[in-house]
Amino acid sequence: MQQSSTYRMRLKDNVRITDPACEDIVVKLTLETLDREPVQPFISGQFIRVGIPDVKDPAPAYFAVASSPYETRQYEIVIKQGTHMGDHLAMLTSGAEVEIEGPMGKGFDLSPFKGCDVILMGVGTGISPLRSVWDSIIQQRSDFGKVTIYAGFLTPLHSLLTDEMVALSEHNIEVNISVATGSDDWNGAIGYVQDALLADHPSGENSVACLAGMSAMVDACSETLQNLGFDDSRILLNF
Q1: Rounded to whole angstroms, how far apart are CA atoms 136 and 191?
Q2: Taking a C-beta distance cutoff of 8 angstroms, is the pair 205, 115 a contact?
Q3: pLDDT tens for each residue of 174-232
């Protein structure tokens, strides 16, 4: 694919990933290059700027790449309806073209932390860049120690990618899923991801943490990690 500041990609697939009964609609879009050449390489946690060709309104918006950097055929992004561009993209059908810039941003570079335990913490659609991280870790699982994911959602109906996360036990990756508000059929943890982290009390001595989500969540989790002995250099953000 020709390298340039902006280029076009084609929508291959559009799949809703929130429960049909959930009032919030979140979709996963799969994008492929127009010439079926490999996508531009990226680091887990990086994002792309997505716009509509020859259209200024809605304005382009930024979305983290949710697919593995080892997946060279396509990008996957997760989009929540509720913004002008999010609503527009969520309604696109297969074959529609979008304009892309990137990937960009610092991402989650784990190359300096081989041999360390890894903690991934995210809430809501913040799970999407972490999906790229855990898919990458699977490809090099022996390079890292214990890997734990702390995922948080508003309610069970708002949960995303939980089937994928449950299957990660096959790769010796532990998953802790919590919701802020439970339901009659919810048997999991109720609370915030930092509460689950504090209960497990991991050591910051030989660990690194990747955080993704709302700023209030990132701040609360960073403070909890610092109290557990994590140096700031071992608390990674992707922006």
Answers
A1: 28
A2: no
A3: 999 999 999 988 998 999 999 999 999 999 999 999 999 999 999 999 999 999 999 99
Tokens of 161: 């990618």
DSSP code string of 31-84: EEETT-PPPPP--TT-EEEEE-TT--SSPPEEEEB-S-TT--S-EEEEEESSSH
Side chain identity at residue 139, one-letter code: Q
What the block records as the tokens of 123 is 């809430």
* DSSP 8-state class, residue 138: H
Q: What is the pTM of this model?
A: 0.93
Question: How many residues comprise the chain?
Answer: 239
Question: Rounded CA gap, 184 and 107, in Å?
Answer: 38
Q: How far apart are CA 121 and CA 211, in angstroms?
A: 5
Q: Where are the alpha helices (DSSP H) in the chain?
A: 84-90, 127-139, 162-166, 193-200, 215-227
Structural domains in the chain, CATH included, are: 6-103 (2.40.30.10), 111-237 (3.40.50.80)
Q: Which two tokens stand for residue 6?
A: 């902006």
DSSP state of 165: H
Tokens 């989790």 belong to which residue? Answer: 221
Instruction: Give the separation between CA 9 and CA 42, rounded to whole angstroms.
Output: 16
Residue with tokens 């991991």: 202
| Total Cβ atoms within 10 A of residue 88 | 19
